[in-house]
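ARCHIVE CARD
CATEGORY: sequence design from structure
SOURCE FIELD: tokenized fold
FIELD CONTENT:
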């Protein structure tokens, strides 16, 4: 009997040791999960607390807008590209090539975005030369306009997008699901126009080309234009698309 008891005690001790070890492993695994959960919660909180920020232009001006068309169509611009009067581009005397400019016609409230690709106008009183397409959309021939020039945020964790009236706003890149990449403003705008009715959730985003930022780049600025959608319900609600 003593021998049987001793064996029983040893067996119990052995089983107890196994249970203790197994419990320790389970506790260790359980202790690792909250860290991942906390990390996800922190990311969610950062996005949740992010406020849509109107993007401040680096240059504003008011004055007369003119336009140029058939006589210059197909000619080389000052930036080296070919002028296409059907694209959303413009000429300015000093703004860096590649800059985006919001142009507003105060007479009718119409606003669009154009990209600077050329130098001009050469009439002293005029402040910007619009492409024929841009002038048509704004209903401008020789009219007073407001212009505001901007580039994307320096911070790669943020992208530019657009609110109604083509007002530029900053959004966290973490909530942007990018689907198409294009090289010019006109290209992304045209594709958005083509798809917007069938894909109302589609948005335009603007950032710097890979390995470039506003501190490194030289005009023409190497921007990238994206089509995509917002993945976070809060931003979907807050950021309505342009008209």
């Amino acid at each position: 009997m003593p021998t049987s008891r001793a064996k029983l005690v040893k067996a119990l001790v052995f089983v107890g040791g196994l249970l203790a070890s197994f419990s320790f492993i389970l506790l260790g695994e359980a202790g690792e999960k909250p860290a991942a959960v906390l990390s996800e919660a922190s990311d969610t909180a950062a996005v949740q607390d992010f406020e849509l920020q109107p993007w401040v232009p680096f240059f504003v001006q008011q004055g007369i807008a003119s336009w140029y068309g058939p006589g210059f169509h197909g000619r080389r611009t000052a930036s080296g590209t070919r002028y296409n009067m059907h694209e959303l581009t413009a000429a300015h005397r000093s703004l860096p090539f590649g800059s985006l400019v919001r142009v507003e016609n105060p007479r009718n409230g119409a606003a669009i975005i154009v990209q600077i690709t050329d130098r001009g106008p050469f009439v002293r009183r005029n402040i910007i030369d619009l492409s024929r397409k841009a002038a048509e959309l704004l209903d401008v021939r020789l009219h007073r306009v407001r212009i505001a020039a901007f580039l994307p945020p320096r911070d790669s964790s943020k992208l530019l997008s657009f609110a109604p009236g083509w007002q530029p706003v900053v959004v966290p890149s973490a909530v942007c699901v990018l689907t198409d990449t294009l090289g010019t403003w006109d290209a992304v705008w045209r594709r958005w126009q083509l798809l917007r009715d069938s894909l109302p959730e589609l948005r335009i985003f603007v950032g710097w080309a890979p390995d470039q930022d506003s501190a490194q780049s030289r005009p023409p600025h190497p921007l990238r234009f994206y089509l995509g959608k917002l993945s976070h319900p809060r931003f979907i609600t807050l950021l309505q698309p342009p008209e």
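CARD ANNOTATION: The first helix runs from residue 2 to 49. Residues 152-238 form one domain.
SHELF: design records, drawer C
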